[in-house]
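Collaborator request, handled under Task 6.
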Amino acid sequence: MEDWTQTLGTAPLLGIAVAAVALILFLVIRVRLHAFLVLVVVSLLTALATGIPADMIVDTLLDGFGGTLGSVALLIGLGAILGRLVESSGGAKVVADKMVSVFGEKRAAFALGVTSLLLGF
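Structure tokens returned to the collaborator:
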């Protein structure tokens, strides 16, 4: 289906875009879902709403994410989710406290920098 063309006019497409943005804001702010997951789900819903054939949706989304970003976006998103889990579970604080105890109170800034490197990689 590579010869597919958009049949919706400007007004319906703008309406779908506004609805997609509103849904993203609602799910992130009110429902408090993770932004990366919301963006992926709303992208899929938007593709369906605009009439893109089902067999073209994944390719369309990957093209939209861009060449390099498309191949790395999932890793970045899942890494952000994992980072949030480590932070909310208290794991980041435990590592930071241990680094401060190892390097001393006078080198707390350095200890936090080392903690950032450890948790960032």
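The cover message to the collaborator said: "The radius of gyration is 21 Å. The chain has a mean pLDDT of 88. Please let us know whether this matches your experimental observations."
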